[in-house]
Design goal:
By secondary structure, the protein is an alpha+beta fold. It is globular and about 50 Å long.
Length: about 110
Amino acid sequence: MVKKKQVERDIKQEDLVIPRGRIFQGYVTKVFAKRVVVEFERTLYVPKYERFLKDKTRLHARVQNGMIVAIGDYVKVQECRPLSKIIHFVVIEIVKKALVEEEKKK
């Protein structure tokens, strides 16, 4: 009975992650047990040289229960409260699934 209450608490605590703030889209580069690393490019203007520079940004995002994310997926992440030292984003949805090698051969 104690274990059942602990599981219910864990689920409720995870549901309390309310996304708020900025939204980014990018490709998944690494997958861990409860989080993924999302990478996207942005352009920066360098006033001194009057040119634009491409820069990559990496974000660590928590994957919600029931969501299956693979490397190469194009996902949408949104800012939330700090969940750990490096996780400040939550995966909202999978915009586009990655192509599987079998599908590429066809």
